[in-house]
UniProtKB/TrEMBL annotation:
Protein name per UniProt: Uncharacterized protein
InterPro entries: NAD(P)-bd_dom_sf, SDR_fam
PANTHER family recorded: 3-KETODIHYDROSPHINGOSINE REDUCTASE, SHORT CHAIN DEHYDROGENASE_REDUCTASE FAMILY PROTEIN (AFU_ORTHOLOGUE AFUA_2G08050)
Any single GO CC term annotated in Swiss-Prot or TrEMBL for this entry: endoplasmic reticulum membrane
Pfam families cross-referenced by the UniProt entry: adh_short (PF00106)
GO biological process: 3-keto-sphinganine metabolic process; sphingolipid biosynthetic process
GO molecular function, one term: 3-dehydrosphinganine reductase activity
UniProt organism field: Lojkania enalia
Amino acid sequence: MVVRHLTKTVHHAVYLAIDPSNPSNTAVGKTVLITGGVEGIGFAMARGYSIAGVDRIIIFRRREALRKAQAKLNAENAVMGRRIETLTYRMDIKDSKAAESVFGAIRQRLNEGWEDDEPNDVDILITCAANLIQGDTILDFDTQTYCNAYVVGNLNVIRAFLAPEISAHSLHELRWQSKDISSTRPVRRQKIIVDVSSEAYVALPGQAPYNSSTLAFTRQCNRYSSRHIKWRVSRSGYIISIRERYMRQGWESSWRRRK
């Protein structure tokens, strides 16, 4: 099968424009939250932002893998002399109430002893969590699981991330009616959302639900705009995770049986 790349150049190593040690890519003073940050692209981004000098890294995940990822990241940062606080929270991103509760706990922790008028908050949200739906066609897969796997879960996290300023738009565009935004906090700080969506632009056998749900989420993101919110789409390359190793073993076994 011939693979057509989206770009003219395929890099196999870090280059200056994306090098986290490049001063122009500094993240000093920032708090970064990564969903699904215990392995693969998510953990690689945690490493990268550590090099870029963030103050805090917060990782979301459902499983006990959080502890191992936190210990590994802390050990690497200690060896390099980096003083970075690493926080972990267990959460299923499909649970909207849990997302609100966890972000409330995060904001409370970030502002303990803080006396400035502008409260501390998460500055950068990176959406890496996903359910790697594999093997079924778009017509075979359970529709609820398909929808929840990427679209609903990530939107829950984004809403909680933007909650203090989420109602900044004062107009319902189709009905031309104003809405009440009296409880909304004035937007004072810039927030960045990094949509890790490489799979939205490729067509791989057996991954139609995963690819299309990723693209659906990316398109929804494009519909929200604000001068205080930067949306970045990241095509982060390919990193083999533990889950993908198991998948490869399954593919190889299936291929051998067919032969």
